[in-house]
Amino acid sequence: MTLLGAGTDADPHILSAAVRIATTPGNLLTQGPDGLTVACEAVQDCVGEALADGLEYDDSANQIRARVSTQAGNSLSIGPDGGLFAPQGGGNPVTTADTDCIQMEGDGSGAPLSASPRLDSAAGNLLSCGPGGLRAAVTTGTCGLTGNGTAAAPLQARTQAWPYAGPVDANAGGVYCDSAGALRSEPRGRYDFVQSQENVTYPSPAVPSGADNVVTTRSLTVTNPDPCRPAAVILEVEADVDFDLPAGAAGAMGITTDEMVFHRNTGSSAISDWHVQVTKMANMMPIPPGGSATFSIDITMGRGAGGATYNRIQTFLRAFVFVL
Question: Check: CATH 2.60.40 for 190-323?
Answer without folding.
Answer: no
